[in-house]
Write a structure and sequence with these properties.
The protein has 287 residues and is α/β, with parallel strands linked by helices. The chain has a single domain, classed as Uracil-DNA Glycosylase, subunit E. The chain is 45% helix and 9% strand. It contains 13 helices and 6 strands. A 6-stranded mixed β-sheet has the order 1-3-2-4-6-5, sandwiched between helices. Helix 1 crosses helix 2. The radius of gyration is 19 Å and the shape is globular. The structure holds iron/sulfur cluster. Iron/sulfur cluster (SF4) binds next to helix 6 and helix 9.
Length: 287
């Protein structure tokens, strides 16, 4: 197995390179990162400049160890996830932030994502990073694959044809507003020619994905397509076999269905996607 095939190894490389470089000026990926990783491990006793940056950020954004109160009006779609409410998630142990205010935490994370140049190619080919959109306290989070051309141009996930279909799935199918859910992707930069994310790209971007999920702290996650499902659940199982079951990822209930772009290419599969949405709606108490 190569390092590219080992997401944990790639994440460790990414995190150490971030720490060495100062989090706001993360370097491009290069083979020298491997050597840097070894140096970082050997020099673990010495606080790095990034540690000071982390401490500064933690001072500005207090970490929380108690359940985060969600202050929006109760609704069927917006409720805290008690399973994860007390989970510890902070800059020190995962290089990312938990603020008492998810709006503030997401804004800080988005700023960092906009500066990210960890992947080899994507920072050169993207128009801009595409972070996420929706209710920062959503009960349901949709996870897609990566931005396409429309998303890259507008900086918002799921705004093209597949985005319109996703909106219909949410609003006409599930009878809830798109504004009530949160939507993000495995990658925050568009791959050239809309190719699938490379394993190392998904690994580099995973801390951002996990941070978004944990800041929003939804009760349910709906993976849209094989790339999202396999990356989140860290499995090689096909999307066909992942459908029909409510999976557990770190306490979050996960339902997998087809990506809207696949449904546009294969309209007969829409009936299967509707079955998946009904499974999700039943689990959420929406039908
Ligand atoms: S895809 Fe993610 S990790 Fe790669 S450059 Fe973009 S933001 Fe950074």
């Amino acid at each position: 197995m190569t390092d590219s095939d080992n997401p944990n190894r790639a994440i460790a490389q990414a995190l150490n390179s971030w720490r060495q470089a100062g989090l706001d000026q993360a370097p491009k990926y290069s083979p020298s990162m491997e050597a840097n990783l070894g140096q970082a491990e050997q020099g673990a006793e010495t606080p790095s400049p990034a540690t000071e940056i982390i401490q500064n950020v933690e001072t500005q954004v207090p970490l929380v160890t108690e359940p985060v109160p969600k202050t929006t009006q109760p609704s069927l779609i917006t409720t805290p996830n008690p399973t994860n409410a007390s989970s510890s998630f902070n800059m020190t142990d995962n290089n990312l932030i938990e603020s008492s205010d998810p709006v503030e935490a997401l804004a800080m994370l988005q700023k960092r994502v906009a500066q990210c140049r960890l992947c080899k190619v994507l920072p050169e080919t993207r128009t801009q990073t595409v972070f996420g959109v929706g209710n920062p306290r959503a009960r349901l989070l949709f996870l897609g694959e990566a931005p396409g051309a429309d998303e890259d141009a507008q900086g918002i996930p799921f705004v093209g044809r597949s985005g319109r279909l996703l909106t219909d799935m949410i609003e006409k199918g599930m009878k809830i507003s798109r504004d009530e859910v949160y939507i993000c992707n495995v990658l925050r930069c568009r791959p050239p020619q809309n190719r699938n994310p490379l394993p190392e790209e998904a690994a580099f971007c995973r801390p951002f994905m996990e941070a978004q999920i944990k800041i929003v702290n939804p009760e349910f996650i709906c993976c849209l397509g094989a790339v999202a499902a396999k990356n989140l659940l860290q499995t090689d199982t096909s999307i066909g076999k992942l459908r029909g079951t409510i999976h557990n990822w770190q306490g979050y209930k996960v339902v997998c269905t087809y990506h809207p772009s696949y449904l546009l290419r294969n309209p007969p599969a829409k009936k299967d996607a509707w079955i998946d949405l009904q499974l999700l709606m039943r689990a959420m108490g929406l039908m």
